[in-house]
Amino acid sequence: MDSRSVFIAGDEGVLFYLCGVALPFDYSKNMHLALRVVEGKEASVTSHRGQVFSVQGAEQVHFDDRAARRKFPDHGEAHLTCRNFQFMAQLFK
User: Fold this and answer.
1) Contact partners, residue 54, CB within 8 Å, separation at least 6
2) Which of 9, 20, 22, 23 lies 20 to 30 Å from 47 when distance is taken between CA atoms?
3) How does DSSP classify residue 43?
4) From CA 83, how far away is CA 55, in angstroms rounded?
5) What pLDDT digit, counting tens, does each position of 4-43 carry?
6) How far is Cα 13 from Cα 15, in angstroms, rounded to an integer?
7) What gap in Å lies between CA 71 and CA 75, rounded to an integer?
């Protein structure tokens, strides 16, 4: 299994979002990892091809679609199922 490591340098608490789009495009195979800078922590995600991406100096931020559906009920499924949109809706008031 192939792996990649990245170190996040930033102020404690800063948020990052890693999004990997599968080629050829297949929505179900996209990769997502929401992160918060926290010294001494590590977060990782595995791609659909088995590659592991590890980020040192950050912890994973868990999210789901509930906030997006509650705050933006008039948006279509393309928005409500988008992980980037879900992350934004949950973490930003």
Assistant:
1) 3, 4, 5, 6, 42, 43, 44
2) 9
3) E
4) 19
5) 666 667 899 999 998 888 888 888 899 999 999 999 999 9
6) 6
7) 9
